[in-house]
Specification:
single chain, mainly alpha, 4 helices, 0% strand, elongated
């Protein structure tokens, strides 16, 4: 049988309350991840060799650039996408000197202030 594993897959680092309660996966997807996720992770990391054609297809579609048709590869690719770090884009300026604002707030007098007198 494909994706055999003795232990249930849990990722408490990314899903503190469990994969099933995360809201990221459907009931079927979370059940498939909990049942076969340990074997999928081992295949993905390379610590386990594929045992049959289903596992070979999983690896080919997971690491390939084509369309994923294998249900195991779809679920695991979605899992990898969900746990990937998110990049934040902020719309504020930092205020570094690199910006070249040209304003001098050091309190020194300039020639413009003496011209006002």
């Amino acid at each position: 049988m494909s994706f055999e594993s003795e232990k249930q897959f849990n990722d408490f680092q990314h899903f503190a309350r469990g994969i099933r309660r995360s809201g990221e996966f459907s009931i079927r997807e979370s059940a498939l991840l909990e049942q076969c996720g340990t074997a999928m992770m081992e295949l993905h990391n390379g610590t386990r060799q594929p045992a049959d054609d289903t596992e070979k297809t999983f690896l080919e579609q997971l690491h390939g650039e084509g369309v994923i048709t294998d249900p195991y590869a779809k679920v695991f690719k979605k899992y990898l996408t969900v746990i990937r770090p998110r990049h934040l884009h902020r719309l504020c300026s930092v205020g570094d000197d690199e910006m070249g604002g040209g304003t001098d707030f050091s309190g020194s007098s300039s020639s413009d202030e003496s011209a006002i007198d």
